[in-house]
Structures are given as structure tokens and as C-alpha cells.
Write a structure and sequence with these properties.
Helices cover about 5% and strands about 45% of the residues. It is mainly β and about 400 residues long. It has a single domain, classed as 7 Propeller (Methylamine Dehydrogenase, Chain H), CATH 2.130.10. Strands 1-27-28-29-30 form a five-stranded mixed β-sheet, with no helix packed on it. A four-stranded antiparallel β-sheet has the order 2-33-32-31, with no helix packed on it. Strand 3 and strand 4 form a beta hairpin. The relative contact order is 0.14.
Length: about 400
């Protein structure tokens, strides 16, 4: 009988671990590096693309979907309302809807919908609007638990493209680069009250990550000014490096990539990219230039010692590249993608181009090897996709689509 209970317990733990591994609860996925633990995925698909399981009309915005516990959160703008919807991830049927009025207008005409990807953790979901309003909602029913008007609270001037950063949960705090009189701010996840603030750096369009660097848990930010490494508990700045363009008409938008004790960051705009090794008291540059991989707003991914990403300014045309992590040497380049999003899953790169093409690419430094390609959305596609339970979710300006990417048969 004891053995039976032990095996039942192990099975329960395994099922919970599997369910968690299948979630995509935040920007760039479960480990915030665009890597997925999914296996058993398609190695190819027809010219029309993978099978569509469901689709839904959506409003304006570039906020990516997130999935946890079989629920999908969609954040978009419909008319003069920001709308948060909770959908069944398998069917697309709505569980609940939460909305509020918005008057946000992008001063450069680049769209008035939300850009920030929501965050799900436990029984809560957080959304950050283009106008700086941060909401905490109950995941089960969509009830508002608290809201902070961050741009008012910290007197933040409007940026070029509205708030684009996606918040991170570290410990009991929601942490984000607010800018204004806040800089980097940590808020209690349950109440929204300020726990600490640091730097005073202006806000960027990049999103933070958390990692263990030099044996210490560290928050890694690319602010408008540059790289900042902080103690998550206190906000104490451990190290920093200025990394931004020399002129104001620019953004820091791509999210930094952390591998071991090393960090890749890029600012584009004749500034380029660099890989830095984080020491106890210093930052050592392994390489830095504007020729290897200068990512604009698309985040690169790391796989087996190589970076894969989009080199160049989005509006001037980019190249999809493979670059040696340690040296910055370009191993291959491929035209024809524009910018886009890249996920690593089941030994493949899942590339969704800005033009709406879904491409399967074998990640190898020996040359560009394409496995499948299909036009599945209408550009511009700038929201990060999500992969969960063998389903790929992504949106363009009119619809959110769920595709079947698993080789297993579905009921």
C-alpha cells in the first residue's frame, strides 16, 4: 500500500511538472528566453501551413498571448477600450472579459493598442497598457484586484511608441523599467505598493529577465541608458554599462539574452551588439560591434553556442543570421525575412516573420537549412507568439490563430 501511495505521489508530481512545462505564462515563455520544453512537434507542414484549430477576431495591438493552466490571456484594444479576455486555450471559447476606457494615441501613428505582453503567475494576471496603467486581475473570474497609473504616479513623459516593456515577477515583486521619477521599480504583487526603486533611468522598450550571474540571483535590465544588473531583493545596482545610440531618435527594444555568466545585448542605431562576461566586480566584453548581430526590436535566441537573430534596422531591411556567441563571427545570413520572432523548440527554430510567414529552420552553424514555410498571417506581425501543449498561438492586426503543431492525434 505504501508503494502505491509513493507511485501515486510521483505520478501526481510528474503530471504537475508536465502541465507547468507546457505553459507559456509570460513574455518569451516559461524561462523568458524563447525556449520551449515541448517535444513531438511537426518537422514539416503543407504550403498552407499547420492545421488551424481555432481563430478569433481581435482588436488593435502588438501584445502577445500567454497561456497557463489551459487558459489563454489576450490583451488588445477594441474601439476606445483596452480589453483583457480569458479564453479556453484548446477551443478559443471565452471564460471572461475585463475592459476599461482608454484615450491613448501614439504620437508617431504606430498604433494605439497595447504592446506589453501579459504575465500569469498563480491565481493572478498582470497587464501593462500603452498608457502605463498596470492592472492586476484575478485569473479565475477576471475581477480587478488593483491598478497603478504608473505614468501619473512617476510623472513619466510619453515615449516614442508607448509602453512596450513586459513586466517580470521576481519573488513577491512585479519589476519593470517605468522611467520618469521611478527608473526601475519593484511593486508588491498582491497590493501594487512600491517596494523599492532604482537608477532613475528612462524607460526603454526592452523587457527585463532574471538569472543567476556570478552565483547571485540578478535582475537584468536594458534601460534607455544601457545595461543594469540589480539585486532583486533591494534594487541595489551591482553593475552597469552604458549601451545606447548617440542620438535621441532611437530605442533600446530587443531583450537581452543570458547564457551562464554572459549577457548579449543590442541597441542597433550604429551601436550594435555585444556579449559581456559578468565578473565579481567587472564586465568583460567578449566582442562588440555593429556588424555581427545588431538587433532592432526582435529578440535573438541562443542555441548550442550560437545566436540566431535579425540583423539591422527593421525599416531598412534585415538579415536572419547565425552568429558565434563567443566571437561574434557570422556563420551565415539569409535575406527575405524582415524582422520577426524566434522560438526554440524540439530541436528546431520556429520563426514567424514580420510579413506573416511561419518557417521551420534547423539550428546549425553550417548553413541555413529550411524545413518548411507557409504564409499564415498578414503583416505586420509584431506580437510574440506562444507555444503550449503542442499548439502555437499568434496574432496579426485582425485575428488570433491557434495551430496544431504536435504530431499526436487530438480528440
Amino acid at each position: 500500500m505504501n508503494r502505491l501511495f509513493v507511485w501515486a505521489g510521483l505520478l501526481a508530481v510528474g503530471l504537475v511538472a508536465e502541465a507547468r512545462a507546457a505553459d507559456w505564462p509570460q513574455f518569451l515563455g516559461p524561462t523568458r528566453d524563447a525556449h520551449s520544453p515541448e517535444t513531438g512537434l511537426l518537422r514539416s507542414f503543407p504550403k498552407k501551413g499547420p492545421a488551424v484549430l481555432w481563430e478569433k477576431e481581435v482588436g488593435e495591438g502588438y501584445s502577445g498571448p500567454v497561456v497557463a493552466g489551459g487558459r489563454l490571456i489576450l490583451f488588445h484594444r477594441v474601439g476606445d477600450e483596452d480589453v483583457v479576455e480569458c479564453l479556453d486555450a484548446a477551443t478559443g471559447k471565452r471564460h471572461w472579459k475585463f475592459s476599461y476606457e482608454t484615450s491613448y494615441r501614439d504620437k508617431l501613428g504606430k498604433g494605439d493598442g497595447p504592446r506589453s505582453t501579459p504575465l500569469i503567475a498563480g491565481k493572478r494576471v498582470w497587464t501593462l497598457a500603452a498608457d502605463g496603467r498596470l492592472h492586476c486581475l484575478d485569473l479565475a473570474e477576471g475581477n480587478k484586484l488593483w491598478m497603478r497609473a504608473l505614468h501619473e504616479d512617476y510623472r513619466v513623459p510619453q515615449s516614442f511608441f508607448g509602453v512596450s516593456t513586459s513586466p517580470i515577477l521576481e519573488g513577491d515583486n512585479i519589476v519593470l523599467n517605468v522611467g520618469g521619477r521611478g527608473g526601475i521599480v519593484a511593486l508588491n504583487k498582491e497590493t501594487g505598493k512600491e517596494v523599492w526603486k532604482a537608477t532613475g533611468d528612462p524607460a526603454s522598450n526592452s523587457s527585463p529577465v532574471a538569472a543567476t550571474l556570478g552565483g547571485k540571483r540578478t535582475l537584468v535590465f536594458l534601460t534607455r541608458t544601457g545595461l543594469v544588473l540589480l539585486d532583486p531583493a533591494t534594487g541595489t545596482v551591482r553593475q552597469r554599462k552604458r549601451w545606447r545610440a548617440s542620438y535621441d531618435a532611437s530605442v533600446n527594444a530587443a531583450t537581452q539574452v543570458v547564457v551562464g555568466d554572459e549577457v548579449f545585448l543590442s541597441a542597433c542605431y550604429e551601436t550594435g551588439g555585444t556579449v559581456l562576461r559578468v565578473g565579481k566586480d567587472d564586465l568583460k566584453s567578449l566582442w562588440e560591434n555593429d556588424e555581427s548581430l545588431s538587433t532592432h526590436f526582435s529578440t535573438a535566441v541562443h542555441h548550442d553556442g550560437f545566436l540566431y537573430g535579425f540583423h539591422g534596422r527593421q525599416e531598412e531591411g534585415t538579415q536572419f543570421r547565425c552568429v558565434d556567441w563567443k566571437t561574434g563571427k557570422v556563420r551565415w545570413s539569409k535575406d527575405g525575412f524582415g524582422c520577426g520572432s524566434i522560438l526554440v523548440a524540439d530541436g528546431l527554430l520556429l520563426v514567424l516573420s514580420e510579413g506573416g510567414e511561419l518557417v521551420l529552420v534547423e539550428p546549425t552553424p553550417s548553413g541555413y537549412r529550411e524545413k518548411a514555410r507557409a504564409e499564415v498571417l498578414t503583416g505586420p506581425v509584431r506580437a510574440q507568439p506562444a507555444l503550449s501543449g503542442g499548439r502555437l498561438y499568434s496574432r496579426d492586426g485582425k485575428k488570433l490563430i491557434c495551430w496544431n503543431l504536435t504530431t499526436a492525434k487530438r480528440p
